[in-house]
Structure formats: C-alpha cells, structure tokens
Design brief:
Keywords: Antiviral defense, ATP-binding, Helicase, Hydrolase, Metal-binding, Nuclease, Nucleotide-binding. The longest helix has 28 residues, at 165-192. The chain is α/β, with parallel strands linked by helices. Helix content is 43%, strand content 13%.
Length: 735
C-alpha cells in the first residue's frame, strides 16, 4: 500500500481509534488549492500560473520531517505545539526556480511566501528569496508525481513595457500571491471548519442591487422639492447613467460638494458593472467617519446587508447570521459591494502580508470608486497613481476619480506621471461649479483667536474650522457656552456622533448653534451652516469647508470667511498647502473657488519634483529591481504607510456600554473582539503625552492589554480629552 502523506492533522483524541482517517490528505489539498487558485488567476489570464503555484505550494510537506512534525503536533495540547517547525514552503519555490530562473523566480515568491508573506528578493536577511532558494531543505522524493505534471508558462499574460516592467511584474506577483493564499485559506478552512465555509458568499447579485437602487432613487427624486439644486442633482445622475455605457477604463466625476455624487457614482458603477460583466463595486473613502455615513446610505438604497464595511472602526455582531457572513467576506472581499478606506485599499496593494493580500485578486475586474481622490498623501502620490494605472491596464478595472475639485492626478504637460485617457462623466464641470455656487468667499487676513470668537458669536448659526485641536478648544472656550459645540478627535467617536446629532437637530429646527471643529467635518458630514469661518489651509480643504455652507441652497448666498491664524499653520504639509493658497489669493483676479484657481493650486502643489511625490522612492526601487527580479516586497510594505503611527490608544469609560465592557473584560476569551468594540470609546494620543499620562497615574492597563483613563477630570464633556491640568503639551495630540 502506498504511503499516505498529509497536509493537516486533527488532534488524535478527536479521531476514532486514534487513526489518521480524518486527516487532510496532501494530494487532495494540493489539487484543491491548485484548482481554486487557477480559477482566481483566470480572471487576469493566468489560470496555468495559479494552478502551478497551488500544486507546488506545500510540496515540502512530502518530507519525513514534516510528517513527523504533524504527528507530534496532533498529540500536543493546542497551546503547546512542537517548538521546532519544519520549513515546507521553500521546497516548491526551489524546484520551480530551478526549471526556469526567471518565470520560476516570479512563482517562487508566491510559494515561499505563502505563510510568512512576500519576501524581499535580496537583502541581508536569511528570509530573503535569494537565500531561501539556496538553503538546504528536507528531502521530499515522493512529490515526483506532481513534478511530472508541471508545464511552466513562457511569458507573462500581457505585454511588458520597458519603462514600467518593474511595476507590472511587481503587481503580477502580488495578484498571483493573492490567488494562492486565498485558495490555501479557503481549502484549509473547508477541512477544519466546514460550517464557516458554508457561510461564505452573498445572496445578492449586482442586478438585484441595481434594481433596488434605481427604484429607490426614482422614488426619492420624485418627492424632493423642485429647487434649482435638485434639478442639477438630477442632471448629474443623468450624466452618470449615460457614461455607464462607455467602455471600461478611467473616469473622473467632478461634482461640487452637495451635488449628490455619492448615490450618482454608485448608480454609474452598478450600471457599468452589469453592462461590462464586472464582479463587484469597491468604494474607497479617505476617512472612517465618511464611511459610516455612506455605508448607511447604501444600505438604505440597496439592501440592509448588501454592503461590506472594511475599516478599523467597524465591529461585526457575532450573534447576527448576516454579519457573520459579512465578517468572513471582509477577509477576501468576496461580496458585491465593498466600502473601505484609502488606507486599507492602498496599503493592501503595497503590503507583503498574507492577510492584506488575500483580497487583491477580487479587485480584478471590478469598478473602483475613489471618493475625494485629491486626498492621496503627497509623498505617496506616484506609487498610488502607478497602482491605479496598473489595475486599469492589466486587471480590467474601471476606476472613477471623484472630487469636488478637478482631479490633480491626470496627465498634463507639466505632470507626465499622471493618469492618461481619463474621461469626465459630468458634461461640463465648469458650468456645474458655477450653477452650484452657493457661497461668497472673503479673505479676512490675519486674525487671532479672540477676534474669530467674537465674529463667530455674532452669528445665530455659524461654523469655524481650524487646523489643530488645541486651537479648536481655545476658540470654543471664548464662545458663549450656551448652544455652542466643539468637535475634534480629542473626543472618542461615539461622543462625536452624539454631539453631531444634536448639532444637526438644532440646525434642522432653525435654532441657535455655533460649532468650532477641526477638519474632521470637511468631508462626508452633512451639516449646513449659513456662515463658515475657515483657517488658512489647502484650497481643496477650503472648497470642502464651503460645502458645509448653504449646502441646500436655502439662502441666496452663504458666507465663507478665510483667515490666517495669528500663530500660523502647523509645520509640514499644512504649511506648504496653505502657502500655495495664499499665493493664489494674492495673484488671482478670479473668485477664490473658481476651478481655474484650484487647477493652478494643484499644479503648484502636486506637479513638482517626482522625488517629493514618492518620498520613500518606492516606484524607483521597484523599477530598479526588474533587472534581477529582486523585488523589495517586505521593504516596500514597511515603507508604504499612509498614516504614520505615532499615537497610542486610550479608552474613555464614560458611557454605560464602555464601563460595562471594561468591567467584563476578564470574562472575554476573544480579546480582539472586545478591542474592536471599545474602538468607538477610544481616543488616539501622541506617544509622549500617553507616557506622561501613564506616569501621572491617569492610565490603568486592564488585563495587561487595555489602557483606560481613570482620571475623570481629564475628559471634558465639551472638548474631550483635556490635558490642561497636566504639564503636557496638548498640541502634540493628533489633529
């Protein structure tokens, strides 16, 4: 009888007669993963590539050493696995690279990295691919039957450009890697937990969702007042529907704030997806507070469980069947409509981690909507542009660049790195901007906090947006406290939402309401003030502030006042962008928010030296690696961070639910779950201030995991975390 080899074991005491009959046969696992991976990779014409890496990924498990390890592991308690593990992923990589040093090396990245993540091709670490291809691995002679079936492809599935070969091969490897690791996860899950597997997949089709959206939008539009703004919103929707018939590729949707682009862009996406046989819609938004709002809108107009939210603040309900399905779908984006953050989207494209890469193959052949596309951080602009270009050119994605201002990333004579062949959906953005103009802007020059507070106090309803939390708190304290509000990230998310609902109520009831906020209200927060003050900032931010002024056009004109803070702007990008705005103010004879001014602003700010637009040199390094195929996957993953993490969490236990969660924390076996539940009661604090709070005795670490504020006087009902009573620089808290 032929010897049996296994991929996975189960504890011996759970198996009848202490046999291995219920273990996962290795040949079955390899064949299944090969077929699933092949199916995923077929979406980008790499079916045979996907099959090969699936068939070879675990060939190292044919070694005696691994089979012995598997037996010992099955006989050990769950928390006491054998300390010496056996490398089973290198063998397949060595074999395939030995057949073809070039094509084989591309496949070897995927095989060798399918557990630990994509390695660097060449580095000083022993984990880099070149070192692993030379290392000694256990013999695995019994894999000969698999080897005999191999037929390596000769060329990549698309033409390789001489000037972009590095980027093309970099993302080809990542898409193949994604196909493999997701296939491996799914087949292993099916063996260990079939019930979990049975929950995967959505009952909704894009056609069903399109039908629901069309009916609900038609019903809404038939009942709205016959105002000029609503007529314009209907015209924008008509433009989106007409453009959906165009061939796949790159689009822009330039619609001023309040033009209804959220639902109109989704209507375009669904119609375009159906006409062009796309797999899903991926809606990418820069901020989590906008995601939560937009997700609720989509659930209302599509279906309550039609949308997957994939971002740090979302907690799935383990007791809800549909949310269990959604939680699983968030792992690999196997769902019709995904809504996620820019951080999650772009960092997944450049990450080397298996968990981040699982979803990538499901981006293929999708419609991607990038809301507030101008918010891509300056220092990562070129890598982001190159990823979008590659998704469009090689992976059949349609991408919509949504913005209230002209997109800054389209190719022009002075910006050759920009995206080409971008088609505008709105028929006349300039005329649209003029028609939707509801605000008169005035530049006030330099103002101190007392002057701004005094001017704002003269309004019955007024909003002031500033650049730092410290300034927001100081101006707020100078206002009459009755009917005055403050919003910043010094307040935990649940607190902010409660305050925001109270503000909306007062505005809707035409009651007195003054609000001082940081820029967190500038995108996706539907508030409408007759008067808005904005501290000097980038012109795109000022345009967003204008979107909170006379939003519904109930007045002839809203008033937007722009002022320069007496103490200037925070250093770095804020100062740089504010200086460009001041230049426009001093040189342009046109109205400040004219699209030609915004175009000039982006030209000055973004269309500068390429080094500043790729601060970490990511694209340059990828292109330089193409000669020897030594791609820096791990290094790129470490360097591509849209948000620099220099803060630490602090849980505020003011609300009953927060107190209950903290009191029960010792009873929770799933710490990750309770951690996510506590996020809505968490403030992010600069590391130096966090350390001082801890030294001051203001923080208790519950169960060695959860930092909880225990000094109630340090959290103010109006302004949130308040460090005035400590000798700490409150300005170091994040904006």
């Amino acid at each position: 009888m032929a010897k049996k080899y296994y991929a996975h074991s189960k504890p011996v005491n759970l198996i009848d007669n202490k046999s291995r009959e219920n273990w996962h046969l290795l040949k079955d696992h390899l064949q299944s993963v090969a077929e699933i991976s092949s199916s995923f990779a077929s979406e980008f014409n790499c079916s045979n590539w996907g099959y090969l890496i699936g068939l070879l990924h675990d060939t190292g498990k044919y070694s005696k050493e691994f089979q012995d390890y598997l037996l010992k592991s099955s006989q050990s308690p769950p928390n006491k696995k054998p300390s010496i593990k056996v490398d089973h992923s290198t063998a397949g990589g060595q074999y395939v690279s030995g057949i073809d040093p070039q094509i084989g090396k591309l496949l070897a990245y995927c095989i060798c990295g399918h557990h630990s993540g994509l390695p660097d091709g060449l580095s000083s670490e022993s984990s880099c691919l070149n070192e692993r291809l030379k290392k000694e691995v256990p013999e695995y002679h019994h894999a000969d039957t698999i080897k005999s079936n191999l037929d390596l492809p000769k060329n990549p599935p698309f033409p390789i450009s001489t000037d972009r070969a590095g980027i093309q091969l970099f993302f080809l490897i990542k898409m193949l890697f994604s196909s493999l690791v997701d296939a491996d996860f799914l087949d292993s899950e099916n063996f260990f937990d079939y019930k979990r597997t049975s929950l995967r997949g959505s009952n909704h089709t894009l056609r069903d969702l399109h039908h629901a959206l069309s009916n609900n939008m038609d019903a809404m539009l038939s009942n709205v007042p016959d105002t000029n703004i609503n007529k314009i919103r209907k015209d924008i929707l008509k433009d989106c529907i007409e453009a959906s018939s165009l061939p796949p590729g790159l689009f822009s949707l330039t619609v001023p704030t309040g033009g209804g682009k959220t639902l109109s862009s989704m209507r375009f996406a669904l119609e375009h997806a159906i006409k062009n046989k796309k797999e899903r819609i991926i809606y990418v938004i820069p901020y989590t507070n906008i995601i939560e709002q937009n997700a609720e809108v989509f659930r209302e107009f599509l279906h309550p469980d039609a949308v997957i939210e994939h971002h740090s603040n979302f907690e799935y309900d383990d007791n809800d069947f549909e949310y269990n399905k959604a939680k699983l779908a968030s792992e690999n984006w196997d769902w019709p409509v995904i809504i996620t953050t820019s951080v999650q989207f772009y960092e997944s494209l450049f990450s080397n981690k298996t968990s981040k890469n699982r979803k990538l193959h499901n981006i293929v052949n999708s419609v991607i909507i990038l809301d507030e596309v101008q918010k891509i951080p300056l220092e990562y602009l070129i890598p982001c542009i190159e990823s979008l270009r590659e998704l469009s050119q090689s992976y059949n994605c349609t991408t919509v660049l949504c913005s209230a201002t002209q997109p800054a990333i389209i190719k022009r004579n002075d910006f050759p790195q920009g995206l080409e062949n971008v088609r505008e959906i709105a028929k006349s953005p300039n005329q649209l901007a003029e028609k939707l103009k509801r605000v008169q802007a005035k530049y006030l020059g330099v103002r101190n906090e007392e002057e701004i507070a005094e001017e704002l106090s003269n309004a019955s309803q007024g909003l002031c947006i500033v650049n730092t939390k410290k300034t927001a708190a100081e101006i707020f304290r100078l206002l009459p406290q009755e009917n005055s509000y403050h919003l910043s990230t010094n307040m935990y998310p649940a607190h902010r939402r409660k305050v925001l609902e109270e503000i909306k109520g007062r505005l809707n009831n035409h009651e007195a309401c003054l609000l001082v906020s940081t820029q967190l209200v500038e995108a996706g927060v539907d508030i409408d003030f007759p008067v808005v003050y904005r501290a000097m900032a980038g012109l795109d931010s000022i345009a967003q502030a204008a979107g909170r002024c006379n939003r519904e056009g109930r007045l002839d004109w809203g008033k937007l006042f722009i002022f320069e803070p007496e103490n200037g702007c925070p250093p770095g990008f804020l100062t740089q962008s504010a200086n460009e705005t001041v230049t426009i103010l001093n040189t342009s004879k046109k109205e400040i928010l004219d699209l030609s001014n915004i175009e000039e602003y982006f030209k000055n700010l973004y269309w500068i030296s390429e080094e500043q637009l790729d601060k970490e040199g990511i694209v340059k390094e990828i292109e330089e690696s193409k000669q020897n195929l030594n791609f820096p996957f791990k290094k790129v993953s470490e360097n591509f961070k849209l948000i620099k993490d220099d803060t630490k969490p602090l849980i505020i236990q003011r609300d009953k639910e927060a107190k209950k969660l903290i009191s029960e924390v010792n009873e929770f076996a799933n710490l990750r779950k309770i951690s996510r539940q506590l996020q809505k009661y968490t403030v992010q604090v600069h590391q130096s201030n966090w350390a001082k709070l801890f030294e001051y005795g203001a923080i208790e670490i519950v169960q060695d995991t959860f930092p909880v504020l225990i000094r109630d006087e340090l959290y103010d009902e109006k302004i949130g975390l308040n460090l005035d009573n400590l000798e700490i620089d409150a300005g170091k808290l994040i904006v």
